[in-house]
Amino acid sequence: MNQPMLEVANLNVYFGEGGDIFQAVDSVSFKVKKGGSYGLVGESGSGKSTVLRAISGLIADWDGRICVEGEVLEPKREKAFYRKMQMVFQDPYASLHPRHTVDRILSEPLGLHGIGDVETRVLKALDDVGLGKAFRFRYPHQLSGGQRQRVAVARALMLEPQILLLDEPTSALDVSVQAEVLNLLSDLRTERNLTYLMVTHDLAVVAHMCEEIAVMSHGKVVEVMSVEQMRRSEPKEAYTRELLMASKGYDPEFFAGEAV
Amino acid sequence: MSEQETLLRVEDLWVRFPTRNGIVEAVRGISFAVGRERVGIVGESGSGKSMTGRSILRLIRPPGQMTAKEISFKGDNLLDYSERQMRDVRGHKISMVMQDPKFSLNPVMTVGKQISEAYRLHSGASRGDAKRKALEMLEAVQIREPERVYNSYPHEVSGGMGQRIMIAMMLIPDPDLLIADEPTSALDVTVQMRVLAIMDKLVKDRGMGLIFISHDLQLVSSFCDRVIIMYGGKIVETCKASELHNAKHPYTRGLLAALPQIDDPKAKLAVLDRDPVWRDQESVVAYD
């Protein structure tokens, strides 16, 4: 009945082989309900992006269980899978093809999946992300960072997926532009009842976007909390407390004393 | 700042870049002064904050042009210095720490050699002395095994350690002024705080001046004594860091409102409405 939209159970991801094996993700489990927004927080090397890449099918070397709407996913994905789940990457300067126009970037997923009515869909997608048709034949270098990230969001939505994986979608943007993109993402979620799984190192951003938050460190989930718990600053783990302090700005007493 | 000595005074600084579509003005007539204090320069990308930092050391390379009525350091006008004299200023009297240690350390030279080279160049000390001093400095930036780090190459150390190495290298000639251009932006938040704590302590202990260039309003307001806010190549506002939340200029207020806050949830973030008038307003003079 109350089936989660996305379920990850005992996920392990390994890199390398033989004696040189490295476990990047260590038995990570969580559930995201339909229409929910779940945040994975951690510092570089914590394995948060790796979890996202395993779910999206960009990494094949994992074990455990990943289910979308109760359906178990194999490491190798069917084409139909990508109509259910799409990803928005961190750096819009790197994720858009520099020599493709916005029109081509947005119509490519349609072509791959044999969906017609391309022109209307492209125009509608541009409209939905607040760009308008004037941007249709521009190249990425003619767009600002925020506009590029809007194009990346539009591309992810072309196949009308139900789940969006967001990998630090605003960390490359200025704060004023970040606010615009975050607002856009919240609006789209409400309008389309999308499910978000968001990875970020910025606690203020997850607190704004997500209802539930898992804190990762060294490949493990060290703490799961609701956004209310986080707002009340009630983390149990010392690591989470440190992250919270750090996100509130420089506090000489807290950090000077225990500097390594 | 009035009772303190002024270390650096910049008057009417302009930075221009000729492009195919005419001249781009990156910095447009700003004036400010820095004493033995921590001054933060905040702005978004393209606001001219990094160009300001580079101009002080006359590091704008052609075809870029830098002009100013005055850039004086302890009373001497740096604009009158020869390139040779400038080399003595750079590193020795004014140092600069850049954003990413990956790109500012020499990848084929051991860390120790780079640090002691910086010291020997400015002090003429012997190899042995320079090594001792470098190890001391590595300890001062709280690197646990200075001897091991001294002999390692930059790719063998982490980002946080790399940035501490950069800071050690910049502080070893004992400069009076440190310019730090986004020194911690490439680092994880908790590492960032540790690096800042180290910088904070060193700057305080040595009574140095610090220009801290950053895009992070919250960080600057909690770390610095005074804040200069730049927009479109001009200074739109300056205030005490502790007074930043009472900022008056609509740009500063807009930036503050656009930040998501953990303890103050909002359904929607405020979006900055850029008023074209801001670009044409007179630059605020930030002498104190």
Automatic annotation (TrEMBL), chain A:
Keyword DNA-binding: no
Alphabetical keyword list: ATP-binding, Nucleotide-binding, Transport
Similarity section: Belongs to the ABC transporter superfamily.
Lineage: Bacteria, Pseudomonadati, Pseudomonadota, Alphaproteobacteria, Hyphomicrobiales
The protein's name: ABC transporter ATP-binding protein
Occurrences of domain ABC transporter (ranges): 6-243
A single MF term (Gene Ontology): ATP binding
Spans traversing the lipid bilayer: none
Keyword Aminoacyl-tRNA synthetase belongs to the record: no
Organism: Roseibium polysiphoniae
InterPro entries: AAA+_ATPase, ABC_transp_ATP-bind, ABC_transporter-like_ATP-bd, ABC_transporter-like_CS, P-loop_NTPase
TrEMBL record, chain B:
Family matches, as InterPro entries: AAA+_ATPase (IPR003593), ABC_Ni/Peptide_Import (IPR050388), ABC_transporter-like_ATP-bd (IPR003439), P-loop_NTPase (IPR027417)
Gene Ontology MF terms in the entry: ATP binding
Ranges where the ABC transporter domain occurs: 8-257
Primary localisation category: membrane
Subcellular location(s) per record: Cell inner membrane
Coiled coil, from the record: none
Protein name: ABC transporter ATP-binding protein
Organism: Roseibium polysiphoniae
Organism phylogeny: Bacteria, Pseudomonadati, Pseudomonadota, Alphaproteobacteria, Hyphomicrobiales
